[in-house]
Amino acid sequence: MIRNGRTSAWTCPTTTGAGSSCSSPARTPRRCSSPRRYELLTGHVPDPTALNIVRARVYTHHSRVAARFLDGRICLVGDAAHLMPPWAGQDMNTGIRDATNVTWKLAAVATGRAHPRILSTYDTERHAHATAMLGLSDTLGRVLSSTSAGAARTRDVLLRALTRAPQVRDWLLEG
Ligand SMILES: Cc1cc2nc3c(=O)[nH]c(=O)nc-3n(C[C@H](O)[C@H](O)[C@H](O)COP(=O)(O)OP(=O)(O)OC[C@H]3O[C@@H](n4cnc5c(N)ncnc54)[C@H](O)[C@@H]3O)c2cc1C
Description:
The protein is elongated and about 60 Å long. It has helices at about 35-40, 90-110, 120-145, 150-160, 165-175; strands at about 1-5, 10, 30, 55-60, 65, 70, 75, 80-85. About 45% of the residues lie in helices and about 10% in strands. It has two domains: about 1-60, no CATH class; about 65-140, FAD/NAD(P)-binding domain (3-Layer(bba) Sandwich). Helix 2 packs antiparallel against helix 3. By secondary structure, it is mainly alpha-helical. It has a two-stranded antiparallel sheet. Strand 6 (about 70) and strand 7 (about 75) form a beta hairpin.
């Protein structure tokens, strides 16, 4: 369960399970039936029926990075360059960093303050970073969505212990 900023809105990514009524073989997101939403939350919160569920969607995610972000006059930024699973909340953040990286370089070249070869650093800098963020997201996903009861228990005990330290708790909640 992920708190969105300092508000009382929470995001709760949960796996639907193979063959369940909410699993989606198609790429098109489908709605998750109301009883099934509460069933999926059982074990995560004391009383799922007490929750006001604002939205529940079934969607798939991908782990992909383009071979290169720059080819001649074509520059890939954001989801066109990389697709990540949601676990680390890094896909849009990575896209914003892409845009920040390439736009000042383009402006510098266009105004004659930098040589055009500076643009090639966009690919080397951003490709490596996006690949690292994808690795982080995949690793976090394996930890958060473990289907092994023992591994999940160990993770929960460890995280509960770690979050007793206010600094660690703040770091985890604020990302
Ligand atoms: C459920 C969910 C939760 C997420 N949570 C997070 C999170 O917590 N943190 C995070 O960092 N990221 C998150 N993301 C990822 C984030 O939403 C995307 O990484 C981000 O929106 C990508 O932005 P973008 O501008 O690169 O691409 P898009 O948002 O896909 O924008 C591309 C735009 O181009 C338009 N377009 C497409 N083809 C054409 C065309 N031929 N001509 C003109 N226009 C066209 C599309 O209509 C669209 O408006 C989440 C995604 C999902 C689905």
